[in-house]
Amino acid sequence: MIARTGALLRAVAANEPDGASTTEVARVAGLARPTVHRLLAALGEEGLVDRDRKTGRWTLGPELYLLGTSAANRYDIVPQGRDIVAELARESGESAFLSARRGDETVCVYAQEGSFPLRSHVLHVGIRFPLGVASAGLAILSHLPEREADDFFSRVSPEINWGSAHSESMIRERMISTRATGYAVNPALLVEGSWGIGAAVFDRYGQPAWALSLTGVETRFRPDRRPVLGEMLLAQAHRLSLRLRR
């Protein structure tokens, strides 16, 4: 029951701010529509979700905001990372992002647009990807202990929803490259022409818990520029890691 409730809330969150229909939530959560409607109605009674009376679409409820406000004191690193993300966007001209690991996924928690007028529009605050998908998740997965990475692949098969480019063997190849350079590269695997580079941010125990990333159009990620962007990310990720340890 708890796992299903979590799946429903994540499915609703993925469609913010416009909300999701019961059918859409059922499809994303992999549950029968009558079951989803019953569970959402129960969550609505607790204030965890809201339903628009005109459209019938579900959104996150006010009780989640109150709970999130309490949890933010412990888990929200946006105040510590906001200036770093802004600096990355300013120096690179690309869109910069801060993502957090949440179990087997990453969720984008903060974004800052760069000055370059063409953008990829792949990432936005609230979007979730499995580890290994997109540069932020690949950076985090690549720096996990080998046993944790193996456990992840035993639970999750990213290629089911993201295609053969995200098979375990292909992701592991990119993990090797990421460990060699320190930063992860997404060569337009999610959206054609949209590239990303990410670097892991470590918690006080030395575990990759967040990631900084830059995204942009392919012409801005030429072979000669990728190392420059990668080193920029690594420097700022190290800076944020040290700040969080203190």
Pattern of helices and strands: HHHEEHHEEEHHHHEEEH
Continuous helix count: 10
Please estimate the helix content.
40-55%
Q: Briefly note the structural class of the backbone.
A: alpha+beta
Mean pLDDT: 89
CATH class of the largest domain: Alpha Beta
The end-to-end span amounts to 39 Å
Strand content: 15-25%
CATH architecture of the largest domain: 2-Layer Sandwich
Largest sheet: 6 strands, antiparallel
Rg estimate, integer Å: 18 Å
Number of strands: 8
In the residues, how many domains can be counted?
Answer: 2
CATH superfamily of the largest domain, by name, is GAF domain
Explain how this protein is built:
- Pfam families: HTH_IclR, IclR_C.
- This is IclR family transcriptional regulator.
- The structure is a single chain.
- The chain is an alpha+beta fold and 246 residues long.
- It has two domains: 69 residues, Arc Repressor Mutant, subunit A (Orthogonal Bundle); 170 residues, GAF domain (Beta-Lactamase).
- It contains ten helices and eight strands.
- A six-stranded antiparallel beta sheet has the order 5-4-3-8-7-6, with helices on both faces.
- A hairpin with a 6-residue loop joins strand 1 and strand 2.
- Helix 1 packs across helix 2, helix 2 packs across helix 3 and helix 5 packs antiparallel against helix 10.
- The longest helix has 20 residues.
- The N and C termini lie far apart (39 Å).
- The model has no long low-confidence stretch (mean pLDDT 89).
